[in-house]
Design brief:
There is one protein chain. It is built from 1 helix and 4 strands. The chain has about 80 residues and is of the alpha+beta class. The chain has a single domain, classed as Nucleotidyltransferase, domain 5, CATH 3.30.420.140. Strands 3-2-1-4 form a 4-stranded mixed sheet, covered by helices on one side. The longest helix has 14 residues.
Length: about 80
């Protein structure tokens, strides 16, 4: 199985975790401080390459009520 990079996307901070090679256990990594989408994508891509992650999953930002929060950039849009 392959390693998975998990991303908790924020506008200024991005949390990261990487799975073990079996994909069962995740270990937290550093929080990235970023200034914009371009920098965020570049830095997440760099981490994925360094750790040989074959997949990246991005968490869906939900409020405690289960409703969608303001951070909608992590959502996939059609079109």
């Amino acid at each position: 199985m392959s390693r998975i990079l998990a991303v908790d996307w924020g506008e200024r901070r991005i949390g990261l975790a990487i799975s073990d090679p079996t994909g069962l256990i995740a270990t937290g990594l550093e929080t990235l401080e970023v200034r914009g989408t371009d920098e965020a994508v570049r830095r997440v891509s760099e981490v994925a390459a360094q750790l040989t992650a074959e997949r990246i999953v991005v968490g869906l930002p939900l409020l405690m009520s289960g409703e969608r929060g303001r951070a909608r950039r992590a959502q996939r849009t059609s079109g």
